[in-house]
């Protein structure tokens, strides 16, 4: 089962929830012993889950995107490549062909449509992907190079590298970036369930609405909510979830000891082991939500 942990708003505790969920599943005796959970940090612009999970990195790869390179001995400057590029990543000016890698989406249209075969593709390295383990959880993360604008190719290649074609009942947790932009959509794509982490404030509710819209309406994925810092704000999140039929699967109270543990780089379930059972129950509740959804679809 692939679960993407997301949040419309930054700073809601998304990584804390995602990493705590993975560790709690790993600590569960029996069924997970031979198939440890896989955790992917898909917040490639600012990955930080490794600060809490402390994995030993075993393999690293440079990744990026294929961009056009022009063979000027064969180019006739006809401009066909620029005509077919939807993203204006290539332009023909007189007898010059200009390529803008930061705009290129790697679709290959220019290569396919060049009448003289003057364009081939080369790898433009934009980041790295890594894999490792902390002994309990298998770990992967992507890192976008500073100054690069496109995170989606890094996330896509991280998923292709580490998620098996048929994950079966293995627990795979993806920690998405905050917001609702393309990197979040890529992190949700292919998931079985999206777990939204929010806080009970007007700002949290506003961004939760947008994130739910992406997951449910655009991608057709089932959604559940974790309310972090429960006890502050108002009832807006509760009322919204009730009206939309979105289950609130876990509430984490606003407590000083949780904040102190986080500030020291210690996960909730390590600082307060009593929460491990709650996160195991959270995973079981996600499985139950999927079972109900499958029964309803029959």
Write out key terms for the chains shown.
298 residues; alpha/beta; Rossmann fold; Alpha-Beta Plaits; 2 domains; nine-stranded mixed sheet; two-stranded antiparallel sheet; 11 helices; 11 strands; 36% helix
Helices, strands, pairings?
Elements: E1 2-6, H1 14-27, E2 38-41, H2 50-53, E3 56-70, H3 80-84, E4 90-93, E5 96-99, H4 109-113, E6 119-133, E7 138-144, H5 152-162, E8 172-175, H6 182-188, E9 193-198, H7 202-218, E10 223-230, H8 236-244, E11 248-253, H9 256-263, H10 268-271, H11 275-297
Parallel strand pairs: 1-8, 1-9, 2-7, 2-8, 9-10, 10-11
Antiparallel strand pairs: 3-6, 4-5, 6-7
Unreliable residue stretches: none
Distance between the termini: 20 Å
Main sheet properties: 9 strands, mixed
**What is the architecture of the largest domain at the second tier of CATH?**
3-Layer(aba) Sandwich
In CATH, the homologous superfamily of the largest domain goes by the name: P-loop containing nucleotide triphosphate hydrolases
Question: How many helices in DSSP terms?
Answer: 11
Helix content: 25-40%
Q: What global shape is seen? A: elongated
Strand order within the widest beta sheet: 3-6-7-2-8-1-9-10-11
CATH class of the largest domain: Alpha Beta
What can be said about this structure in brief?
With 298 residues, the protein is α/β, with parallel strands linked by helices. The chain has two domains: 2-55 and 137-297, P-loop containing nucleotide triphosphate hydrolases (Rossmann fold, 3-Layer(aba) Sandwich), CATH 3.40.50; 64-124, Alpha-Beta Plaits, CATH 3.30.70.
